[in-house]
Amino acid sequence: MQQLDTETTRDKLLRAALHLFARQGLDVPLRDINELAGQRNASALHYHFGGRPELLVAIIDRYRLSDAEHSAIEAELRSGPHDIRTVVEGLVQRSCAWLATPDGRDYIRFVFQFVVRLPLREQLLDGTEAPSLATVRAQADIIHESLPDLPERIVRERAVASLDLVLLQVAERARIIDDEGGRGLLAEDEFMGNLVDMATGLLTAPASRRT
């Protein structure tokens, strides 16, 4: 991981944390982050961020879309009419945009690990989802409108599963690009098209008698 000499200590800690969280998970020892950032003072991270939760929030705040951008995406989704495939295409395009840079690839790998720990089903049920994931509820509403015969609990499950699928596939592509030199990857257009197909199929699969 390249670091510029002009980076502040806080910047170095953030980049080191993102790099390690992306590869080793969110429970990586904080001392490893200090070491990768070149900080001899073991308390440097605590001084600049306070602890792990504050560090996670700082990473999200630095890289995520602004509240205004999320509001614009959600407003566009709700303006309708939209079919489910169009909604999925937007999600895939926004997620794949992170693949363009090393930091972006680290971030999408971090986001996948972060999102799978969130209680998204409960947040959708209570209407309290995090602002950074605001489009999940809008997507769930569109799915419900497109598939009115599906119970809301099934729609909620599919909305969460489709987000997890997209983030998993994009995060895995980021991993292969950085850690395996991109070996065996589909071309970008083919990858995105296939991912849209898979996620759309997940959302629109016919309901069985059991569900």
Which structural traits does this protein have?
211 residues; mainly alpha; 0% strand
Secondary-structure map:
Blueprint: H1 9-24, H2 30-36, H3 44-49, H4 52-63, H5 67-79, H6 84-96, H7 102-115, H8 120-126, H9 134-146, H10 152-179, H11 188-204
Helix pairs in contact: 1-2, 1-7, 5-9, 6-10, 6-11, 7-10, 9-10, 10-11
* Proportion in β-strands: under 5%
Helices and strands, in N-to-C order? HHHHHHHHHHH
Instruction: Give the number of helices.
Output: 11
Largest sheet: none
| First-residue to last-residue Cα separation | 48 Å
Residue-averaged pLDDT, rounded?
85
> Helicity range of the residues?
55-70%
Q: Using DSSP, what is the number of strands? A: 0
Shape: globular
Q: Class by helix and strand content? A: mainly alpha
Radius of gyration of CA atoms, rounded to a whole number? 19 Å
Poorly predicted runs are none
From the structure provided, what is the oligomeric state, counting identical versus distinct chains? Answer: single chain
Tell me about this structure:
- With 211 residues, this protein is mainly alpha-helical.
- It is 69% helix and 0% strand.
- The protein has 11 helices and no strands.
- The chain has helices at residues 9-24, 30-36, 44-49, 52-63, 67-79, 84-96, 102-115, 120-126, 134-146, 152-179, 188-204.
- Helix 1 (9-24) packs across helix 2 (30-36).
- The radius of gyration is 19 Å and the shape is globular.
- The model has no long low-confidence stretch (mean pLDDT 85).
